[in-house]
Amino acid sequence: MSTGPYNYSYIFKYIIIGDMGVGKSCLLHQFTEKKFMADCPHTIGVEFGTRIIEVSGQKIKLQIWDTAGQERFRAVTRSYYRGAAGALMVYDITRRSTYNHLSSWLTDTRNLTNPSTVIFLIGNKCDLEGQRDVTYEEASKFAEENGLLFVEASAKTGDNVEEAFLETAKKIYQSIQDGRLDLNAAESGVQHKPSQPGRNNLSNDQQANKDNCAC
Amino acid sequence: MADVLTETVLPEDLKKFEQIYHGQLYKNDVTPKAQFDYAFCLVRSKYPADIQKGIALLEDLYRTNEEGQRDYLYYLAIGTARLKEYSKALGYVRSFLSIEPGNQQVMSLEQTIKKKMEKEGLMGMAVAGGVLVAVGAIVGVGMAISKSK
């Protein structure tokens, strides 16, 4: 089997949500592949991506569920909110309607995740300054009023994409350190892998097998 | 927490969409959406019987509803892969890619399926099986020759 000792000590679950066509999959792709997908078809149901990052010297594996933005998937993709440690809520700065729908996305997120879930608001497509339809100040105020982290980013140029994913992880890690996030709670969206490389290989394998059987 | 082939539906979700579907079925007026939502949950169940049922519902949608073909193909691939019917699953992936070449989501599913096959040693077994047949054939021929002498 290819499962040796884990090379990360935590798994964080993220979801990416927001209206159709705001660039959720492109943000994910930019983050995991460092490439821009120019021609991005509509996501079917949910897409999945991972990347290992480092926060305060700890390796963390991000498991990212990128949900379809099309309305017809909204009912079924809600189940992915459960147990998310981080939620990236995306709108398109060139399309006001995608911004206006944020309160509905936020309501869903608050209802379906837990109080410790970190919500990060991303105004995507900030490379298209000429077509801007939502000002930075307005969105920033919305974020502040609702206790969200906020950044304008561009999946095309890569501006602030890395930052959004990493800042979310830092905030989650901080919650763990402060004891605000209970690692033992099933819905925390965080798994701890207390393994030291070269030791506890047996328990690692057992853990890995457990993961495989989808329980 | 896993990937698209191992994550499972929440029992309450399955129940919720089952009720909607059955409610419509009772009135003999099932919408493609209710059927898809229910199938979407079924193919992500941990019970093979549920997955089978989900596949049947998706096959029916694929035949009767032109609109959501790409959704149905994608989840048919997921359902069959979860039942370890990998060649079928890869067949759906290929059909999808012939309509929409270069779709990143589907290409990534293809990779996940192939990785899973590798992990389960199916690639290896196929090769080993081939070798066994070949050895058997050689032994058989050898025996036939020695007998004929």
From TrEMBL, chain A:
Its EC number is 3.6.5.2. GO terms for biological process: defense response to bacterium; endocytic recycling; Golgi to endosome transport; phagosome maturation; protein transport. It is an enzyme of class 3 (hydrolase). CDD domains: Rab14. It catalyses: GTP + H2O = GDP + phosphate + H(+). One of its GO terms (cellular component) is recycling endosome. Residues 193-215 have a biased composition (Polar residues). Gene3D superfamilies: P-loop containing nucleotide triphosphate hydrolases (3.40.50.300). GO terms for molecular function: G protein activity; GTP binding. The keyword Nucleotide-binding applies. Residues 187-215 are annotated as: Disordered. It is found in: Cytoplasmic vesicle; Early endosome membrane; Golgi apparatus, trans-Golgi network membrane; Recycling endosome. It is a lipid-anchor. Its main location: cytoplasm. Its cofactor is Mg(2+). Belongs to the small GTPase superfamily. Rab family. PANTHER family: DRAB11-RELATED. NCBIfam families: small_GTP. This is Ras-related protein Rab-14. The gene is LOC115877524.
From TrEMBL, chain B:
InterPro entries: Fis1 (IPR016543), Fis1_cytosol (IPR033745), Fis1_TPR_C (IPR028061), Fis1_TPR_N (IPR028058), TPR-like_helical_dom_sf (IPR011990). It is a single-pass membrane protein. It is found in: Mitochondrion outer membrane; Peroxisome membrane. This is Mitochondrial fission 1 protein. Gene3D superfamilies: Tetratricopeptide repeat domain. One of its GO terms (biological process) is peroxisome fission. Keywords: Apoptosis, Membrane, Mitochondrion, Mitochondrion outer membrane, Peroxisome, Transmembrane, Transmembrane helix. It comes from Sitophilus oryzae (Rice weevil). Belongs to the FIS1 family.
